[in-house]
Amino acid sequence: MKNSIEYIEKKYGDYIINIHDLIGDDDPSKLFYFLMNHFGYLLNPEDELDLKDNRIAIRKRIHILIDKLGPLFLSSRQVIEDKNELIGLQGEKRTTIQLPNEPVIFAANHGFKDDVLATVLAAKRHAYILFGSVPQFYNTFDGITAYANGVIMGNRKFKPSRNSTVLKSIKLLEKGTTDLIIFPEGVWNKSPNLLMIDLWPGIYRIASKTKSKIVPICHYLDENNNVIHTVIDEPISIEGMSEQEGLSYIRDTISSWYYLMMEKYGKSTREEILQGKSFSERWEEELIKRVATADRYDSEIELSADFRPKDKVREEDVFASIASIDNVNALNVSDVINAKERVKVKKREDFQRRF
User: Fold this and answer.
1) What's the pTM value of the predicted model, to 2 decimals?
2) Backbone phi, then psi, for 54, in 5-degree steps?
3) pLDDT per residue rounded down to tens, the chain (355 residues)
4) How far is it, in rounded angstroms, from Cα 196 to Cα 199?
5) Which terminal residue of the chain has fewer beta carbons within 10 Å of its beta carbon, N or C?
6) Which of 305, 10, 8, 47 has its CA nearest to residue 138?
7) Is residue 272 classed as helix, strand or coil in its secondary structure?
8) What is the residue extent of each domain of the chain?
């Protein structure tokens, strides 16, 4: 009975929308029932985060092992970049940073299969992972390694769970003995025009409440998927900033490093990138390849979990309001027709919610 979908749905039904929250687009793996029966309780928003000193001590020892063996499990070689070289300064290399004694929040950009492991390896210090890819946790071996390292689970489809991740993260940092890893974009950045998509405000609220510094980590995977170029930047403080200012500061800091690495390691000409195809066709091919690398993909959440601030006016929303005008007449018909066509184009270009 415990190894049945019906049992799992009944036992954890209060914490999920449907079974796809747990398995994504795939069938249950061989590990699924084992992971659910042993670690399903992590989905409970009211579950107390286990922060016993002996448990954290064990996880820190496990982290030493992950740090040594982790590079063997990366699909691409990771290189820690010299920040001085990237900004054109000569002299001493700047690949490491000075971390404070207090816990920090490692904030990384999100966009390819190995970015979680690459972030763990770049951080060096032990850090719990704010883990939102539920199917990857419960339907792959990653769930075991992530649990051994330490996780704060969050079901992005379930609002109480999303809210609880902020509270649990605050409790973790206030404990004062370990760090936290967050991917503040929430989902992979699939936009061809944005270095980073809008950040979920949770990172600001956690940092503000705990007065923790944020360590930006930026990854750039070259076009041939051969090398993960990584920058670990100096800790930054958002103290005294508004939420919008703080989120913009974090996003701009990571984006700046991404741009510098893209300039250095990206394709040199537009012709090489497009390969004789339209931009949309080429980017669709790229996204299809990226999505195919995901161990377990949940299209339901990936098509909707990017943060879209309510006060941010989007071009497609403006066109949609014109396209939906009921009273069409000779004076506005051309505007309505144009708006409807623009809505179609914008929907096609909204790669973030198409893949």
Assistant:
1) 0.90
2) -70, -35
3) 678 999 999 999 999 998 999 999 989 999 999 999 999 999 999 998 989 999 999 999 999 999 999 999 999 999 999 999 999 998 889 999 999 999 999 999 999 889 999 999 999 999 999 999 999 999 999 999 999 999 999 999 989 999 999 999 999 999 999 999 999 999 999 988 889 999 999 999 999 999 999 999 999 998 777 899 999 999 999 999 999 999 999 999 999 999 999 999 987 555 566 566 777 788 888 888 888 888 788 888 888 888 888 888 777 777 788 888 888 888 788 888 888 888 887 888 888 888 8
4) 8
5) N
6) 8
7) helix
8) 7-18+39-270, 313-353
CA–CA separation, 220 vs 230, rounded Å? 6
Q: Does an H or E element contain 177, and which?
A: none
Phi and psi dihedrals of 51, rounded to 5?
A: -120, 30
Instruction: Show the tokens assigned to 300.
Output: 């339901």
CATH match of 7-18+39-270 with 1.20.1740: no
